[in-house]
Amino acid sequence: LQVDLPTVGEHDVLVKILAAPINPSDINMIQGTYAILPDLPAVGGNEGVGQIMEIGSKVKSLKLGDWILPKDAGLGTWRTEAVVAEDAVISLAKDIPLLCAATLGVNPCTAWRMLSDFEELKPGDSVIQNAANSGVGQAVIQIAASRGIKTINVIRDRPEFTQLSDRLKAIGATHVIREEELRRPEMKELFKTCQKPKLALNGVGGKSATELLRHLQYGGSMVTYGGMAKQPVIVPVSALIFKDVKVKGFWITQWKKNHSNDVRAFRTMLDELCGLIRKGKLTAPVCAELGLQDYRKALNAALQPFTSAKQVLIM
Fold first, then answer.
1. What is the pLDDT of residues 193-235, one digit of tens each?
2. DSSP assignment of 126-137, as one string?
């Protein structure tokens, strides 16, 4: 679909989109089940990296050739070009790989904030998470490893479990276990070599979330950022009374809204993440690159269960 672009206003920039991934939140937005729904007709895509091709006369924070990320959800990145307001985007270092840049704004930022904002974690502490092979899960593993924090990573059983486990350990996972193992006595053996976690990260919900809670140490926190099982989080009364656990939610879009007037907070996070990328301590998830014209194929692939690669549209 070809559409005419509006004129670049004095506070606007013309952006050429370079690459944009397909995330679960993008699918939810199309389905009408996401917390933010744009006015129709709309362009899909909440994440991606672009390059500044033209700037308005009063633009101060950006220059020609800069790479940029959307500051917030709803920008519509599944297109080749867009005219957007200067304050809708933030500049990004150009010396990181394209796929790292394209997938930086949602999952690594979510992981960084959850590891930073809910518990005071120090080297030797541990974190337990489900959906460990997701984009957020892989970022959690790597960021935690860079801070000396151990991770207990829970994934669903599957034919290629061993290969996936090896891949997660290669990027820094301390332990990788199947969902079913959470309910077994062998977990006691694991905790002989690893502290009980202060923090649990839940991207699934349902029974999986309840099992994470059972392994938290006294006073620990469980943070829910997703609900792939489409089942409610059930919290045992005993966990609240006798273990004093804290149960919270996190949404990176809300964090960005809350900090919309504090560019430094976003900039500090991006700078640290880019630093990890440069050192080889944070890599992009496994990606399947497709041209924008193959968007149907990419969307269909993103909807498949046990998807091992993030679909990225290359413009």
1. 899 999 999 999 999 999 999 999 999 999 999 998 999 999 9
2. EEEESSTTSHHH
Q: Rounded to two decimals, what is the model's pTM?
A: 0.95
Is 225 considered catalytic here? Answer: no
Is residue 280 packed enough to be buried (19+ CB in 10 Å), middle (13-18) or exposed (0-12)?
exposed
Question: Residues in the chain, how many?
Answer: 315
Tell me, rounded to whole angstroms, the distance of Cα 215 from its chain centroid.
Answer: 24
The third-level CATH classification (topology) of the domain covering 107-252 is Rossmann fold (3.40.50)
Q: In the chain, what's the furthest Cα-to-Cα distance?
A: 66
Alpha-carbon separation of residue 238 from 47, 80, 209, 221, 231 (angstroms): 40, 53, 15, 15, 21
Low-confidence ranges of the chain (pLDDT < 50): none
Q: Burial, 313: exposed, middle or buried (Cβ in 10 Å; 0-12, 13-18, 19+)? A: buried
The two tokens of residue 114 are: 């959850």
Write down the pLDDT at residue 309.
Answer: 87
| Among 34, 218, 225, 295, the one annotated catalytic | 34
Assign domain 12-103+284-314 to its CATH architecture: Alpha-Beta Complex (3.90)
Per-domain boundaries in the chain = 12-103+284-314, 107-252
**pLDDT at 202 (0 to 100):** 99
